[in-house]
Design a protein that fits this description.
CATH topology of one domain: Tetrahydropterin Synthase, Chain A
Strand content: 15-25%
CATH class of one domain: Alpha Beta
Distance between the termini: 98 Å
Number of helices: 8
Shape: elongated
Helix content: 55-70%
CATH architecture of one domain: 2-Layer Sandwich
Radius of gyration: 35 Å
Largest sheet: 3 strands, antiparallel
Low-confidence stretches: none
Length: about 190
């Protein structure tokens, strides 16, 4: 009889549940709603990169005096009037691709600009260092990646050639580089 009471007591005790499925779904739904509201607020209130750039430009123009901005524009236009284009040579380079059986063939004409007042100085420097300048151009092209050659403006290659050539000349005499004729093919 004692055993019967113990089993009845055990049977009569309510079964403990670890939280129902409905409770878990309510918590998950609440958390999902909070995350969705946060995402919506972030989408509405965080500015896009274009808006940030426009605000920065607007703030910059407010801080600069109007005369300074027009003076800089006039100075750059005057400098462009004083620039002279100089032909720096025709090149035909084979560029082997690392870890590949293919090679690229680049054919181009290189030109640059210098100040008109420094044209004779630049000509003298080029007469002293024609092979070194050519080596700089060849080196930069041979060490460039395919992505660098795919850039329509060849910006990275131009910057590296300008930096190394101006170091060769001892001063930043060469102002810009241009590739008026550029093509490359895969072989």
């Amino acid at each position: 009889m004692a055993e019967n009471k113990d089993t009845q007591a055990i049977d009569a005790a309510p079964a403990k549940s670890g939280g129902g499925l409905i409770g878990k779904l309510l918590i998950a739904g609440f958390m999902g709603a909070v995350i969705a509201v946060e995402c919506l607020l972030a989408y509405l209130f965080i500015p896009t990169p274009d808006e940030v750039a426009a605000l920065a430009e607007e703030n910059m123009t407010k801080k600069l005096p109007a005369s300074l901005a027009t003076d800089e524009i006039a100075a750059s236009q005057d400098e462009m009037k004083n620039m002279v284009e100089i032909q720096l040579g025709d090149y035909s380079i084979t560029i082997s691709q690392r870890n590949s059986a293919t090679a690229l063939r680049a054919d181009f004409t290189l030109a640059g600009t210098v100040l008109a007042s420094e044209e004779s100085t630049f000509s003298n420097l080029m007469e002293k260092h024609p092979a070194r300048f050519r080596e700089i151009v060849l080196y930069e092209f041979r060490n460039s990646e395919r992505e660098d050659l795919d850039d329509p403006e060849l910006g990275l290659i131009k910057r590296r050639i300008l930096e190394r050539s101006n170091n060769l000349f001892g001063k930043p005499i060469l102002k810009t580089l241009m590739f008026p004729d550029f093509s490359y093919i895969e072989q």
